[in-house]
Amino acid sequence: MGVRLQSSQRSPVNFVLYSKGYPDVTLSKIFTLETLTIDVFDGFHFKFTLNLQRFSASGSELNFTGSLRDGTIFRGLKKLEEVDLSLNDIYVLPSTTFEDQKYSLKYLNLDSNELSSLRCQTTEWLIASSIMLFLVIAVVLVPVVVKRYRDNIILRLSNRWRGVMRTRYSQSFQFDAFLTYAEEDYNLACHTIYQVLCNRGLKISLPDKDFLPGLSKVEQMLQCIDDSRKVVFVVTEKFLENGWSSYTVQMVVTHAFHNKRERSIIVIIKDDIPIERMPRDLKFVWWSIISIRWPNCEENMDSFWDEITGALLPNT
After folding, report:
1. Fewest CB atoms within 10 A around its CB: which of 51, 78, 165, 270?
2. d(CA 79, CA 101)
C-alpha cells in the first residue's frame, strides 16, 4: 500500500506499509501526523494518528470492509477537519462514520461514489413517492370532503353575502309574516311564537287561523304569502319528517322567486338541526334566506325575539 505522510512540521515522509505492520522508522512520525494521503487502501487503521487533521483516499480502491463498514474508521480522530473519499466504490456509509467529527469536520468529498448515485436516486424516489402518495390521498379524500362539507361551506358563505341584498317593497301588506310549520308543532307555533310576536305589535298569518274550510289549501297558502311581507318556516325534527312541509317549502321558494321576493323567507331552526339537513329547496336559495336559531337557554330568549322582530320589520 502506497502512503504519503506529513508530520506537524509538514515534512513529507514516503514509505511502504507491509501487512505485518508499520516499519519502525515511521513510528515517531505517526504520533504527530496531521496529513495522510493514501493511494491504495486496504483496511488502514488510525490508532496511532489521533492528531490527524486531513485525510485523502481519493481513487484508492477503498474496500468496504472492516472499520469502514462498521462506521468506526475515523473513531477518536476529533481533530479531523478534511476528508476526501471521492472516486471510490462506496455505496453506503454508516451514520456513525463521522460521529467523533461533529464539531471538527469542515470539508467532506464523496463525489463519484455509488453513495452519491444512490443518495440522488433515493432522494428522487422519495420526492416522487411523496408526490404520488399526496395525489392518491387527494384523489381519495377530496371527493369525500367535498361531499361531506359542500353544502355547509357553500351555505355559510352564501349566508354572509345575504347582507348585500336589500329588497324594498313598495306595496303594503296585510300581514307582517305568514307562519308555516308542521302539524305536530302546533303548540310551538300558535301558542308560543304567534303570541309573542303579536304582543310585539306584529301581524301574523297562520294556516289554522286564516285558512277557510272547503277551499283549496294550496290556493289559500299562496294568497296568504302574497298578503304577507315575510314567510317564516319553523324548522324542527317534525317539520323535516313531514312530507307536506317539503311541498310547502318548494312552493314558497318558487313563488317568492317568481315574484322577485327573494328576501322574504325567514327560517327559525330548532332542535340544533345542522344546515346540511335543511330541505334542499331552502339550501339552494340559502344566500337570500335569513336564518335564526332557537336558543338553548332561557337567558337568550329576549335576544332571540328581538332578532325575529327586527327581521320582520319593513325594509329588512
Report:
1. 165
2. 7
Distance CA 298, CA 94 (A): 69
Query: For 13-41, how does the pLDDT look when each residue is reduced to its tens digit (9 = 90+)?
Result: 433 343 344 444 344 456 677 888 877 65
Q: Say how far apart CA 168 and CA 261 lie, in whole Å.
A: 9
CA–CA distance, 228 with 202 (Å, rounded to integer) = 11
Give the closest residue to 306 by CA, choosing from 227, 168, 202, 186: 202
* Average confidence (pLDDT) over 189-206: 93
Q: How far is CA 290 from the centre of its chain?
A: 30
Q: What average pLDDT does range 163-177 have in this prediction?
A: 64
* SS3 at position 28: helix
- Output the pTM of the full model: 0.48
Average pLDDT over the chain reads: 75
CATH numbers and ranges of domains, the chain: 2-112 (3.80.10.10), 117-162 (no CATH), 165-312 (3.40.50.10140)
